[in-house]
Amino acid sequence: MRGSYKTWIGLEIHLHLKTDSKMFCSCPARYGDEANRNVCPVCMGYPGALPRLNERAMELGYLMARALNCRLSAKTFFARKNYFYPDMPKNYQISQFEDPVGTEGFILADLGEVGERSIRIHDVHLEEDAGKMIHAGDVSLLDFNRAGYPLLEVVTEPDLYSGEETEAFLRDFQRLVRRLGVSDGNMEEGSMKCDANISINPEGKGLGTKVELKNMNSPRFVRLALNYETARQAAMLKDGGTIIQETRLWNENRDVTETMRRKETSDDYRYFPEPDIPPFVPDEAFFSRIEKGLVELPLALKKRLVAEYGLTPDLADFIRDDEAVARLFEETVSLGSSPRDVAAWLSSDVRKVLNREGRGLAGSPLTAARFHELLSLIAEGSISGKIAKGVLDRVFQDGEDPAAIVKAEGWAQITDTGQIAEFVDRVLEANPQVAEAVRTGDMRQRGWLMGQIMRLSEGKASPEMAQRILDKKLLDE
Amino acid sequence: MNSYKEQWLAVLRNKTQCRAYEARVRELDAPIGSFLSFHLDPPPGSNNPPGALSGIPLAVKDNIAVRGRPLTCGSRILENFQCPYTASAVEKLMSAGARIAGKTNLDEFGMGSSNENSALGETVNPWNHNKVPGGSSGGSAAAVAAGFVPLALGSDTGGSVRQPANFCGVYGLKPTYGTVSRYGLTAYASSLEVIGLFSRDIALMEEAFTIMRGFDPRDQSSINPQEPPVGGKKAAVLKVDGGALDGAVSDACKTAAERLGAEGYEFSAVQLPSLKYVVPAYYTIAAAEASANLARYNGMRYGYAPDYAENPRELMKKARHEGFGPEVKLRILLGTYVLRSGFQEQYYGRAQKIRTLIRRELDALFKDYNFILMPVFPTQAFSRGGADMDDYQQRLADVFTSLANLAGNPALAVPTGMAKGLPAGVQLMAPHFAEARLFQAAGELSKHFSPPSPEGSLDIRGLA
């Protein structure tokens, strides 16, 4: 029966913007501080305190709206969204309702196996976050550090049709916000949140009843929750039941969605224009800063990595997935290194070192200059690939330049024919039977002999030269 | 003779004088009740250069923030709240040398025109203790009228400075919206209100106003004053339906027009066709904004909280139920009602349209006239306990004052005489940023009449 139903999914994505201070006051917007440290009369909603707009948050909001191809508001307003909640200091949220930062956009998204699709964006608007209420036994604790954090909400149209597509979309969206520097986009840490609206109906009947899903703390959970919900609703419809409009929470311990609240009537937030904040009218300088911030988007980057540098799509994905990796790749290539070599090293040896040290590439000692120097040493034949791995380790450990490490350690490759011939002779003399076996056609033993030669030279003999000399000696004699 | 300001500067120079002053004010204020808390700041240290207001005691309406003092807003819900910061306007006056004397009584959160809606005490009119001092800044008006302070701050949302000034016989200024920072003024109706001033001396008031105005980065709706068009000697007097005003009030308007005529002003009678919509529009907008502004008082972070609650929701409910008085609850309910989705256009949207209309009508008048003379309130100070005016009549009577709040214009209440033992006076309204014209005209009127003092007032010269 599954095939006879169609699923529509629309998302409400909340991003914590990467600003130093909160949306309407100068308190630091910082995670992990002691509770109720980063608060002031403004973000605590004291009598008489007034909000003042964080212009950086406005820039990031407009940048995101621009990247999502939205119609940008020439004049944007804030509104009060009224509702009571213990962790909301003013019991209204300063948000945007009419004339938000951006409306009617779209983004060409990489949906993995289904390929690329344009997803329509309903609107992009700015608002402030609330505090946090923690229930501990029979007491409830309130932490207002997060109250007033700048939030950007991106609302999509229902253009996604499955849990798998939605997961892929969210991963692509994360790449986008990180590349733009708008947000960390981390769902596990809460700098990105995603609520999903799902509606299913028999094919050809249009949208069904909307159910809202919350509490999914990773793109994977979003997929699981949507797939669970698709199956649940399809089964209900098949049995002749009706879907109730409600909000459901994903329970990640039980892998099910559960009713949170039923909505008989829609909430009335009594929006009205925020009298404390005059309309924001960006000037030309503001818009030119936005254009400057508009870097190449992840999908365009991937296409360029494949077309311009001949990378495989998988390698291209690997490079663009991490902003620091993408930057190091481009910088190193621009210094003259081979794109394929740079990509190969980044995806294997560099990644191994990073995993082992449990760190990211951002701020690491492996600068583009050092990386290029290392790859040049290999290309010139000054060191072997094997030695290069050791040099890479040392770059991370000591933060020194590869050439200096090679020199200090005497790791330069031996390219002197006489010297290498001497290693070959010594190995052949020590293993006459093996040499004889190779001569009579057992080529498997040839590799073993090479290994002995490299070991004798402490890995420094040029492998190509050693191979050539060995072959010559075995064949000639 | 020394100016009023100089009389004040001559005293309060040493500890003995200050103690005598404090004791005298406490004694004289006991029957009047203008202050909710009273304690004079110490004189500025000797290394502080003397400012324009050096040594002048300042009373502050208790909905304006002063660090380390209460900020009750006349409400149970903030009865024990100690304020951790100071309002920008107060800071400016303090850095010019003003010393905070105390916090004055008001109708709860500024909602009322009699001071009878204060949950924390009753203030009476210094001229006649059976009459109200007006409101909501009744405490500040009474304190200035009784000579306790030469200068006081109030807030004017719909007439809350001008009406009590008028009732108590002192000058009361509502500045142009945005020219004085609202940072630190407890919000009631954010788009209407502004911090204003009381004084018995127009020169001192102008000096204080010049100090406290100007853009403040902490209030993004604040603005620097712009140059108003040059005013001439043409003035308008608002035509009001006969019978709408008490005799003493219409007499005051006549007298003022005559005196100003003697100073060279030429008056023409004008009408404001939209005047009848002012009160409904004003109450709709004020209540709507109040319903959001007062949502923050929920017993969670500060202020009154019940002894026991089953859960956070119940805690908020109880705190608000027990903490707010009936007038505040009424306006919150009204505001919530007019903002309901589906009804916004009918109420809030229409009120905003009326607001635009009124502003256009006034702008058109100010193309021809320097200022408009009109009443402050249809009556003189009314009796306590609702004997001559019920709540509904009191609201309707806000028409002449709330006009300036809807349109954002500056307006000044000017005392012009006494009638039936009570002060009478008029209101002058000017185009945006033209406060100077109001001070000019009031200065000219003061040649003809200077406000007397009620019995039981403090004569500061007696302390020198």
How are the elements arranged and paired?
The complex is a heterodimer of chains A (477) and B (464).
Chain A: E1 5-16, H1 55-67, E2 71-72, E3 79-82, E4 92-95, E5 102-110, E6 116-128, E7 132-136, E8 139-143, E9 150-156, H2 163-180, E10 192-202, E11 211-214, H3 219-238, E12 246-251, E13 256-262, E14 272-273, H4 284-293, H5 298-309, H6 313-321, H7 323-334, H8 339-357, H9 368-379, H10 385-398, H11 402-409, H12 417-430, H13 432-439, H14 444-456, H15 463-476
Helix pairs in contact in A: 1-4, 2-3, 5-6, 6-7, 6-8, 7-8, 7-9, 9-10, 12-14, 12-15, 13-14
Chain B: H1 4-9, H2 15-29, E1 35-38, E2 57-61, H3 88-95, E3 99-104, H4 138-145, E4 151-156, H5 162-168, E5 171-174, E6 194-199, H6 202-212, E7 234-238, H7 247-262, E8 266-270, H8 278-293, H9 312-323, H10 326-338, H11 345-368, E9 372-374, H12 391-396, H13 399-407, E10 411-419, E11 422-429, H14 435-446
Parallel strand pairs in B: 2-3, 2-4, 7-8, 7-9
Antiparallel strand pairs in B: 1-3, 4-6, 5-6, 5-10, 9-11, 10-11
Helix pairs in contact in B: 4-5, 8-10, 8-11, 8-13
Index terms:
heterodimer, A: alpha+beta, Arc Repressor Mutant, subunit A, 3 domains, nine-stranded mixed β-sheet, B: 464 residues, 14 helices
Task: Please give a structural write-up.
- The complex is a heterodimer of chains A (477) and B (464).
- In chain A, 41% of the residues lie in helices and 19% in strands.
- By secondary structure, chain A is of the alpha+beta class.
- Chain A has 3 domains: 284 residues, no CATH class; 114 residues, no CATH class; 60 residues, Arc Repressor Mutant, subunit A (Orthogonal Bundle), CATH 1.10.10.410.
- In chain A, β5 and β6 form a beta hairpin.
- Chain A is elongated, with a radius of gyration of 30 Å.
- Chain A starts with a strand and ends with a helix.
- Chain B is α/β, with parallel strands linked by helices and 464 residues long.
- Chain B is globular.
- The mean pLDDT of chain B is 93.
- At the A-B interface, loops of A face α8 and α9 of B.
